[in-house]
Amino acid sequence: MKSNNAVKLLIGGALASCSFCSYADVVFNGFASLRATSADSDGGTSAFPTHKADGDISFSDESLFALQARTDLGEGLSATIQIMAEGTEDFDAEARWAYISYELSPQHTISMGRFANPSFYQSEYQNVGFTNNFGRLPRAVYAGFDFSTIEGIALDSNFTFGDYSLVTKVLYGNWDGTTFLAATQNDETFGFKDEISVRVELSKDWWTVFAGFFMVEIEGGSVDSNAILGATKGAVELAVSQGATAQQVAEYESAVIWGGKDGLYGYSGFHIDYDKFIVDFEFANYGVEDSSDGFNRAWYTAFGYRLMDKTIVTVHHEKSIQDEGDLEFLKGISHPTLFATAKALRNTLSLREFDAIGVSVRYDFHSNAAFKFQYLSGEDTRPNVQDFTVLSAGVDIVF
Questions:
Q1: Domain ranges of the chain
Q2: Which residues of 66-93 are buried (b: 16+ CB within 10 A; e: fewer)?
Q3: Average pLDDT over the chain, rounded to whole?
Q4: Which residues contact 337 (CB under 8 A, 6 or more apart)?
Q5: Can you give the pTM of this predicted structure?
Q6: pLDDT tens for each residue of 23-77
Q7: Which of 205, 89, 101 is CA-nearest to residue 146?
Q8: In angstroms, rounded to a whole number, what is the distance separating the alpha carbons of residues 257 and 230?
Q9: Is the domain defined by 2-398 classed in CATH 2.40.160.10?
Q10: Contacts of 9 (CB under 8 A, 6+ apart)
């Protein structure tokens, strides 16, 4: 992918800078999750792609290690790189973050390179299990998108107004990569062009409210050619045999593809931590406009209680649904067979919905480490999943 070349150039530039700044301090830190996970489902297929639904215990499905190094080059300039190895990738190390930052003022920092794509509220630290009270962040929102990182430029700002704290981020960037599609059972290519992202977080004492969005132009790649146009090639040929013209076929293709369309991602929610009670809520809405991709709506609500200083019990409900009823994108398709094909394609791509309830227990047995246990039970609309359970236990650490 193009992203690998960009990271190599950035790392090379940072190392070259360090060779001329031998006096610079390098600070290392990191995080890890070591978990045993067992997943099962009535349909025989896991509800989440990182799990195997055979009921066996896996020590790699949700385990990971990460090391981050930050070099202060002086005069407000710094370079950061994060290397992460995930069990699902045989613990092969990958440079997930690699960027250079410059402190414009105590309130504003500008960064350039590869860093976390702020798709949702906790996207920037969703892999750091120690920072949350769940066995795993609710997958309804934190689905593990392949575009969790992005290459571009970002401005982080912070402001204080009396007892209020306001944190903002504005980002511009691009992403090229692959995503696994159940429709083709393969990794398909696509990309984000000219992403513009904004996020806002306002907090005071024991509460925080937040919201964010990003908009991109989708580059369809093989998602368009294989999963969308390729999957309906037979139906298009049938329509042509029934008299569909080249213009009508073009109308159909223009309506269903993702390439050149706007992708919209938005989220909002709040966090409350008052005395012994913790409440979290996050709602997300995303999809590709005027295409065969129905918009997704997902949310979770969590209630936590501190039994003791070191133990927190959290009960949460999460749900993900897809809007297959919005058929506005069909209005330009005039041939009845092509119209029916596009409608069926939308229904196929909008097949997956799930609803789950989970119980998590966190015990901080060390200042830098927490033992976590979670039981999750839910129902998935896919026939090959249906009712499912996920049981996990392990340790999250930071260092």
A1: 2-398
A2: bbbeebebeeeebbbbbbbbbbbeeeee
A3: 90
A4: 235, 238, 239, 242, 244
A5: 0.88
A6: 468 999 999 999 999 999 999 988 988 888 788 999 999 999 999 999 999 999 9
A7: 89
A8: 11
A9: yes
A10: none
